[in-house]
Design brief:
The structure is a single chain. The protein starts with 29 loop residues before the first helix and ends with a helix. Strand 3, helix 5 (138-147) and strand 4 form a beta-alpha-beta unit. It is globular and about 55 Å long. The chain has 415 residues and is α/β, with parallel strands linked by helices. The chain has helices at 30-41, 57-68, 82-96, 111-123, 138-147, 180-186, 209-222, 261-265, 279-289, 298-307, 312-336, 361-372, 386-389, 401-411; strands at 44-45, 106-109, 129-134, 150-155, 157-160, 174-177, 191-197, 225-229, 255-260, 273-276, 339-341, 348-352, 374-375, 377-378, 392-396.
Length: 415
């Protein structure tokens, strides 16, 4: 994958590389490089996407209680503890009117990353094509490669944000949009699966109801499976709405939906994720998942179950706080001279560095700690078509307001 360091070391016993050829293009991620650079330079890390404060105290205490009560300290059940599976099923019904059997249609995973890997390993065979929206979270490419599939990127490109006639007005917000014709043209007789992410990391795009309806029609028409990464489901702003693809006609039986406690409750280190899907799909994903971690995060599963039952005030407050952080950082980036693509979801802002006289995101991000004391991520690491992502840089706003303000003050030096 573009942007990763090669790890194909040579075997001292012969010419064959030590690393499996399917993974030869992957190595240490840019996140490790940039985070190390933040530490060595004392820079503000707006690169890696994790909050700088913990989530709700009552959720943390729920984990402590589970530890003390001996719940989850030994291997939990393979599909996940019943309390969490029930909580996930209740959440899907309460929020989306999707009904899942907690015993056969819910699977707990070691975060969304394992859920993605297990789903692709289970559902993709060598030679199958997997369509993913580019730019994409870096584990997508590695998981497709491990499954032996062929990734087919469909690129999101900058344009006016959705919003009717006002979208074409001068100064209207910009976002990254999906070309549905390009998506349809990418499907071939070898296409097995669509891998979607909405709200979308890194661009912050939230697919609209109309876009999702067209994707659903395409999946049904071409008999495609769909894996949807919806870990940012609560992190939508302004008038954006998150709508699970599984709610559309014909999609429940062909969609694997992935959720996570990490992004919603600000406990990313707990690694608690889940899959909801029809029983045959969950059985297939569980068959692969059991040979990855088997089980994980025992006590934290109980805490995640309690977290999913928090009152609506918590989720409204989370969205409000993050939207304020988005607006604060967007204003600072605009003042510093970046072109800003205002995200409708997630906790990332993508910027264009060309107004600053720059065009190489890698070089810009590697120099930024010394120039301004801030760390960001070059979006090109999320692209197969590196030239498409070259001028774009991602910043995270899941930080305290004073940290964002200090970062904005430092970035002002660029102008």
């Amino acid at each position: 994958m573009a942007g990763m360091t090669s790890a194909a070391s040579t075997d001292p016993a012969g010419p064959r590389p030590l690393l499996n050829r399917r993974l030869a293009e992957f190595g240490t991620t840019i996140f490790a490089e940039m985070s190390a650079l933040a530490l060595s330079t004392g820079s503000i890390n707006l690169g890696q996407g994790f909050p700088d404060t913990d989530g709700p105290e009552e959720v943390r205490e729920a984990a402590v209680r589970a530890l003390r009560d001996g719940r989850g300290n030994q291997y939990p059940p393979g599909p996940g503890v019943p309390e969490l599976r029930n909580a996930v099923a209740a959440h899907q019904h309460r929020r989306y009117r999707l009904d899942f059997d907690p015993d056969t249609e819910v699977l707990v995973t070691a975060g969304a990353t394992e859920a993605i890997a297990a789903a692709l390993l289970a559902l993709v065979e060598p030679g199958d094509e997997v369509i993913a929206l580019e730019p994409y979270y870096d584990s997508y490419a590695a998981s497709i490669a491990m499954a032996g599939g062929t990734r087919v990127p469909v690129t999101l490109r900058p344009g006016p944000a959705p919003g009717g006639a006002q979208a074409d007005a001068p100064g209207a917000p910009l976002s990254f949009r999906l070309d549905l014709d390009e998506l349809r043209d990418a499907v071939t007789d070898r296409t097995r699966l669509l891998l979607l992410n909405t709200p979308h990391n890194p661009t912050g795009t939230v697919l609209t109801r109309a876009e999702l309806a067209e994707i659903a029609r395409l999946a049904v028409e071409r008999d495609l499976l769909v894996v949807t990464d919806e870990v940012y489901e609560y992190l939508v702003y302004d008038d954006a709405e998150h709508i699970p693809l599984a709610t559309f006609p014909g999609m429940r039986e062909r969609t694997v939906t992935i959720g996570s406690a990490g992004k919603t409750f600000a406990f990313t280190g707990w690694k608690v994720g889940w899959v909801t899907a029809s029983a045959p799909l969950v059985t297939a994903v569980r068959s692969a998942k059991q040979f990855l971690t088997y089980v994980a995060s025992g006590p934290f599963q109980y805490a995640a179950a309690e977290a999913l039952a928090l009152p609506q005030d918590y989720f409204d407050g989370l969205r409000r706080t993050l939207q304020e952080g988005r607006d604060l950082l967007a204003a600072g980036l605009t003042a510093a001279g970046f072109e800003v693509y205002r995200p409708a979801g997630t906790y990332f802002i993508t910027t264009d560095i060309r107004p600053l006289g720059e065009s190489d995101g890698f070089a810009f991000c590697r120099a930024l700690p010394e120039r301004a004391g801030v760390v960001a991520i070059p979006n090109a690491v999320f692209y197969d078509h590196r030239e498409e992502g070259a001028p774009f840089v991602r910043f995270a706003f899941c930080k305290r307001p004073e940290v964002i303000q200090e970062a904005a003050t430092r970035l002002a030096k660029l102008r």
